[in-house]
Design brief:
By secondary structure, this protein is an alpha+beta fold. The protein has four domains: 88 residues, Phosphorylase Kinase, domain 1 (2-Layer Sandwich); 231 residues, Transferase(Phosphotransferase) domain 1 (Transferase(Phosphotransferase), domain 1), CATH 1.10.510; 96 residues, Immunoglobulin-like; 77 residues, Carboxypeptidase-like, regulatory domain (Immunoglobulin-like). It has 16 helices and 26 strands. Strands 1-2-3-4-6-5 form a six-stranded antiparallel sheet, with helices on one face. Strands 12, 15, 16, 17 and 20 form a five-stranded mixed sheet that branches. Helix 1 packs across helix 5, helix 3 packs antiparallel against helix 7 and helix 4 packs antiparallel against helix 5. The two termini are 50 Å apart.
Length: 546
């Protein structure tokens, strides 16, 4: 076992990877008491562009807030080394899963793609282009969570804005342009060739969101075929094929790949960016339309099982919800329709309200979600009912429900979500609420009277929020936190954060922060605290006044 080290405030840091420019450590956060990953960058001489890229990755991650993006906890310098502290995702990367399984079922591939798209949606909304989408940067936990990682070569609007703004000053313009050019020179290539769009192969500095969409298409191709559409090299013949879009159609490799998946790949991988999807939203829409025919929760469970296993696993056959109906003969059609009508009447509670009203009790669910909640807008919550027998806890057949938003509430701060009534025999039950990678449990007792549950665990209420402030010199990386002033806008006045009770901050609310330091330009932040957030990191990259 490798010897542990102490890095800053982090103790018991065990090196898990090392390279010429740094190392990666596994450690425990001293306050959060959870495992974290520490990325260390060490450059003895020069390397200003690489160091700037490292700092920019930290800044980009600090601006992102999504359960589908690896979370950043801290950024600091120690000696000549720079450090980024990141969320530890215990599991494996997508490239390892593909290596282990070779080919993934299209339903699982689309679920993975969906979560990757949701992570990119948050990044793109902040003006960030990832530029290195590939299976190695998609992390999957043992709970079936899927997170986008490694924004080391990402570009963002702030980069170009800073260069543009500084051009008013000739000296500053030269410095800013030099940094920007060193990071991504016009006509240069950054990224992983096998997953790069034609325009990124030519000039990485000028790509936009559509380059990420292309890379996602390549990744989907690899997941469902077990092979890449193009060789991972920069040979002229390979580049010529990429620019022409000359790859083997996925259905020629595997005829069982659904046409919806093949069509999606084709649209995402158009060589001409103008003919691709112009934003990530229509991609997400197509994925959802496809996954609506399947039990997404069951697919996520099978993913978690595969991540946990060290060996190749056999995935279950994910049956379409209406597959059996498609297979029945014309002779049996009327019978099937009768059964279907009866089943619908049963599911809607018609039978329970009439014939079985003495033996079943209606149970209704509702909950409040903030209108700003990204996860609530992206993935619907589902309710599952189980018999609490103290032993196997079996699921009650036909009781799964999807939460629906009440009409006319879209403009409200909080949106009320509800389910159709579930009819249960009197007894003890457990309810599981699953929303994407998040799961909540609640025990209930059902008697003769109707049960109306108002689930309050997702309310947009005040919650304890841990806030961390940090300030660094943008040129030297020196820590100037102690000499800096951190302010928050309260009403119409800027107030010292030391005088503020942060436990009273409300999720779903926009807060404005200001960092000042004599001799430096002010740093201004306007941030929305999302519903799932319990920590906030304000990292100021302070520029000296000329």
């Amino acid at each position: 076992m490798a010897e542990s080290e102490t890095i800053g405030k982090y103790k018991n840091c065990t090196k898990i990877a090392a390279g010429g420019m740094g190392a990666v450590y596994l450690a425990t956060h001293p306050e959060l008491k959870r495992k974290v990953v520490i990325k260390k960058l060490t450059l003895r001489n020069g390397g200003a562009a690489i160091r700037e890229r490292f700092k920019r990755e930290a800044r980009i991650l600090s601006d992102l807030s999504s359960p589908y993006v690896v979370r950043m906890f801290d950024y600091f310098t120690e000696g000549r080394a720079n450090y980024i502290v990141l969320e530890y995702v215990e599991g494996m990367s997508l490239d390892r899963l593909i290596e282990k399984q070779t080919v993934l079922p299209p339903q699982l591939a689309m679920l993975i793609l969906q979560d990757a798209c949701l992570g990119l949606k948050n990044a793109h909304s902040k003006g960030v282009v990832h530029r290195d989408i590939k299976p190695g940067n998609i992390l999957m936990s043992k709970r079936g969570e899927i997170k986008l990682a490694d924004f080391g070569i990402a570009s963002d609007e702030k980069e170009s804005e800073s260069v543009s703004a500084s051009s008013k000053d000739k000296t500053a313009s030269l410095d800013a342009t030099a940094v920007s050019s060193a990071i991504t020179m016009a006509g240069s290539t950054l990224g992983t060739p096998a997953y790069m769009s034609p325009e990124q192969l030519t000039d990485s500095s000028s790509v936009d969101n559509r380059a990420d969409i292309y890379s996602l298409g390549v990744m989907l191709y690899e997941m469902v075929t077990g092979t890449k559409p193009y060789a991972g090299d920069m040979a002229p013949s390979t580049i010529a094929r990429i620019k022409k879009g000359n790859y083997i159609p996925p259905r020629k490799i595997n005829s069982k790949i659904p046409r919806q998946v093949s069509s999606l790949i084709n649209k995402m991988m158009k060589p001409n960016p103008a003919k691709r999807f112009q934003s990530i939203e229509p991609v997400i829409s197509r994925i959802r339309k496809y996954l609506n025919h399947y039990d997404a929760h069951a697919i996520r469970v099978s993913l978690a099982q595969s991540v946990i296993s060290s060996k190749s696993t056999k995935f279950p056959i994910y049956e379409e919800r209406n597959r059996k109906l498609k297979k029945i003969s014309l002779v049996a059609f009327i019978s099937a329709m009768i059964l279907s009508i009866f089943g619908l009447a049963w599911k809607e509670g018609v039978v329970h309200k009439t014939v079985l009203r003495k033996w079943y009790t209606p149970v209704s669910l509702k909950m409040q979600m903030p209108a700003t909640a990204s996860a609530a807008a992206d993935i619907p919550a589902n309710a599952f009912f189980f018999v609490n027998d103290g032993d196997e806890i079996p699921e009650v057949p036909g009781t799964r429900r999807v939460f629906l938003a009440r009409k006319g509430e879209e403009t409200k701060k909080n949106i009320e979500y509800f389910t159709k009534d579930v009819f249960l025999k009197p007894g003890e039950y457990r309810i599981k609420i699953a929303e994407g990678p998040y799961v909540w449990w609640k025990s209930i007792s059902v008697g003769k009277d109707k049960v109306a549950l108002d689930l309050d665990f997702l309310r947009n209420a005040s919650r304890n929020l841990s806030v961390h402030f940090n300030a660094l010199d943008s040129e030297t990386g020196a820590d100037i936190t102690e000499k800096s002033n951190f302010l928050i806008l309260s009403g119409s006045k800027w107030v010292d954060v030391k005088k503020v009770d942060f436990s009273k901050l409300t999720t779903g609310t926009v807060y404005k922060f200001l960092i000042t330091n004599e001799g430096y330009y002010d740093e201004y932040f306007s941030l929305r605290i999302d519903w799932y957030q319990d920590e906030l990191f304000i990292n100021g990259n302070m520029r000296k006044k000329m």
